[in-house]
Structures are given as C-alpha cells and as structure tokens.
Design brief:
Number of helices: 8
Largest sheet: 8 strands, mixed
Organism: Arabidopsis suecica (Swedish thale-cress)
Number of domains: 1
Keywords: DNA-binding
Distance between the termini: 68 Å
Structural class: alpha+beta
GO molecular function: DNA binding
CATH topology: At1g16640 B3 domain
Protein name: DNA-binding pseudobarrel domain superfamily
Helix content: 25-40%
CATH architecture: Beta Barrel
Number of strands: 10
Length: about 230
C-alpha cells in the first residue's frame, strides 16, 4: 500500500519523539517559584555540588580545603554563650538562654526589599524549649522582640511565622541591622541565641556575626564534616 506524504510525516514525528523525548522545563521553573528564595538557594547549591553539569542554574558553592579548616576552627572555638559586649547597654538583660544556632546568610536574607532573616523551624522549637520550657505558637502576626547586636545596639523586630512553617525575624529592624553591620550573603555567618529578659520576661535574641572569605554557600561535604548540627 502506498504511503501518503502526510502519513510519512506523522510516522517520522512519532519516531523522533521516541528517540528525543520532550523536556518539560517550564513546569520545573513554575515548581521552583513556589519555593522560598532562601530554600531555593540552598537547594540549588546542594544539587550543583552533587550534579555538576546537570543543573540549569549555576550556584556558588564553596568546597575548598581552606574553608573546611576555617569552619572546623570556628565550630570548635566560638563562645557557647553570648559575648558580654552584646549586653554593654543592658548588662543584666539575659535570663534563661538557649543553645546557639548559626546561619550562613543567603541572598534573600539581605535583600533590601525583603527585610527578613529566615530561621530553621526545628532549631527555633529547641530554642523555645530551652528558654520557656515549651514551644509557643507564633502565628502569622507574631510578636515584637528586642534583638541585641554584636556591638550592643538593641533593634526591635517582629518574630513570626512566614508562610505558616518558617520562623523569621523581620521588619525595618532587620533591614537596619543588615545596614548597620554591612552584612552580605555567603561571607557573613550569624551566631544566634534566644533568651528571656530578666526584667520584662519577654523573648529576646542576641546575634553575633563573623565574616569569612568564602566563595559561596558551604558544600554538603563541609557542612557534614565541620558541624555537629549542620
């Protein structure tokens, strides 16, 4: 039976589809947009490290030996409690205090139009238990807290839940904090404590900052090798 030109084109198209499947990149992009920028930056850095050459975006990831040694030293020698200089203007402020948590700043933490520091949910729960003996629901409106900076300045911020499951410190207070200490993504690392103020009994935070000459987000290899709780 003779094959018509139209039938010949359809057969060729089906053959090509079998050999070269269509990639639905648009759907991947839309799915990524539903993830917060902070989570996306970490996600991309991890995937770039694990799948070099396969990721459409190229993330900045530091996996150098020099950075690994710096992080090991920092983890071993940083103070377990807030330094006294943080309380120079309010020396008797600190009551019950949590264990420290740390964070490498991402792009979304320091963007001027976002004004928020994103914190880990499980770590914040642990902090609350350390300070209050229990966890408390923050809600979307949250509460105003005093945040003590590296040089003793006290900044008012809002401690709340963002998108239902991500605790943040935000408002103009965080924006001013970033400007005051000239914080930048990747190179600045924060050590954060939650404590209860001795007089007011309110939740407060103490934040210290350390700068390292890193090239990007820490690689999974460095995180796992240098930190007890990466």
């Amino acid at each position: 039976m003779a094959v018509t030109p139209d039938e010949d084109e359809v057969s060729l198209a089906l053959l090509l589809l079998q050999q070269y499947p269509v990639s639905f990149e648009q759907e991947e992009e839309e799915e990524e947009e539903s993830v917060s920028e902070d989570e996306l930056e970490v996600k991309i850095s991890n995937q770039t490290y694990a799948n070099k050459g396969k990721k459409r975006k190229v993330a900045e990831v530091d996996n150098s030996k020099e950075t690994l040694l710096r992080m090991i030293d920092w983890e071993a020698n940083r103070p377990k409690n807030p330094p006294r200089r943080i309380f120079v203007r309010d020396p008797d402020a600190m009551g019950a205090c949590s264990e420290l948590m740390w964070k490498q700043l991402t792009g979304s933490d320091v963007k001027e139009n976002q004004c928020r520091l994103m914190l880990g949910k499980e770590r914040v729960k642990k902090m609350m238990v350390d300070v209050l003996g229990k966890t408390e629901k923050l809600g979307i409106h949250g509460q105003t807290v005093s945040v003590y900076g590296p040089k003793g300045e006290i900044h008012e911020m809002v401690f709340k839940m963002w998108k239902k499951d991500t605790p943040v410190l935000m408002s103009v207070g965080w924006k001013n904090f970033v400007k005051k200490y000239k914080l930048e993504k990747h190179v600045d690392f924060l050590t954060i404590w939650m404590f209860r103020h001795k007089e007011t009994r309110k939740i407060c935070f103490a934040i210290d900052s350390t700068r390292f000459p890193v090239k990007g987000m820490l690689s999974p290899k460095i995180l796992n090798a240098a930190f007890k709780n990466p």
